[in-house]
Amino acid sequence: xxxxxxxxxxxxxxxxxxxxxxxxxxxxxxxxxxxxxxxxxxxxxxxxxxxxxxxxxxxxxxxxxxxxxxxxxxxxxxxxxxxxxxxxxxxxxxxxxxxxxxxxxxxxxxxxxxxxxxxxxxxxxxxxxxxxxxxxxxxxxxxxxxx
Length: 147
Prior knowledge:
With 147 residues, the protein is α+β, with helices and mostly antiparallel strands. 47% of the residues lie in helices and 18% in strands. It has one domain: Beta Polymerase, domain 2 (2-Layer Sandwich).
């Protein structure tokens, strides 16, 4: 079966296939799996990933969803996101604000909880580390560079 037919079978859009940041076919499969396990549409997932890449660029390593949107039996809720980056930013607060603005531009006004972490996962406190460990266990990978 051709890649084109597989993508069509899982419902991936033409725009998604054109994203230059898309690294390999495994990510298409990951997206298809994520779509069945989270309460987001294909377009919402695509726009979240595109917003992350637009804002964080080549520094972005992974995008995860956590919280109520990972539970198929719940309704509503904000969109809780973890963006993992390769190198720590000089101004994480500014990065979060720019990312939130890009998400609102792409998805409309809604509540986003955004966490940006460096892939070495060092935190300022034990409390931050415990919070990350708790949410990462139940989070779903939406996109990764597979580097």
